[in-house]
Amino acid sequence: MKNSPNKETAVLALVAAGVIGGLMPIFSKIILRELPPLTVLFLSVTLMLVVLVPIMRRDLPQVYLYRKSLLKFGFLWLANIALFIIGVNFTTAIASQVLYAGVPLLVFVLHYFVSREKTEVSQAAGVLLGFIGMVLFLVGSFQRTADFGSFTGNIIIFVASLSWATYLVYSKRLGQNVRPIILTTGSAIIAWVGSGILMVMLERFTGLEKLRILSLGGWLSLAFIVLFVRVAMIFLFNWGIKYGSPVVAGSMVYISLLTTGALTTVILGEHITTRFVLGAILVLTGVFFTSTLPLLQKRRVR
């Protein structure tokens, strides 16, 4: 019998995914200067399948076997990536990551309704703090300041984060019977069909025509989104959740936010104000009480 990977290895996989996630909005902002969002989405998922299908050709029958479950799963992922690439076009890279920092709060709430596990007082307080921080952040975007981004963009990103939180919770349940690579490939197939339909309906083929004049930076950004975000990150998340926890996976927004915050001012020239930091601190404090503190307490008991 093969030994299952331990939880420490699963956490390392999730940390790597968190770093990649932090780079995602930066590279997205770069390529969106040259291509419309749904074209970027369709191209990235198409190239993702070009990478995955040769690797998965012997296991494709399993994708068909679990088609009903993967259909729901794939739509959640499609909603997440489609709304993100659209929303980040209207807001700042760092703003998108602060909103995604609320994912562990959403995972906690969704996980509670699914499992009906007992809620600690500290976790309830964390949900409240995180909610206040996110409301402060969204209200601040009404003023259209550069640090908060636009209200429309932030609402779209919030809905995208809700889709991602639901994806994480559902992934844990489905991942008990389905291998991570099957989940990744099934999600990609659904996203490819969905993104192709959306692109043709809303953007026609104008974005594809711009590929002839795409700059080197645009091609490199697209390559990063395909290889690291679409393939590596989603696989690492599915694998880490299978052998770890959806709550821990959601907590990787710490890593993503730090990565984005450290690089966005240098690469994109975005500014972070005191008011912005206050909202971010409230959200991250809520995340800490909701997901990280309970894990630390369990370790102390052991």
UniProtKB/TrEMBL annotation:
Q: Which UniProt keywords apply?
A: Cell membrane, Membrane, Transmembrane, Transmembrane helix
Name of one Pfam family that matches: EamA
Instruction: Please give the superkingdom of this protein's source.
Output: Bacteria
Where would you say this protein principally sits, based on its record?
A: membrane
Q: Which InterPro entries match?
A: AA-Vitamin_Transporters, EamA_dom, EmrE-like
What is the recorded membrane topology of this protein? Multi-pass membrane protein
Q: Where is the EamA domain?
A: 10-138, 152-291
Annotated transmembrane regions: 12-32, 38-57, 69-88, 94-114, 121-142, 148-169, 181-201, 213-236, 248-269, 275-296
The name under which this protein is listed is EamA domain-containing protein
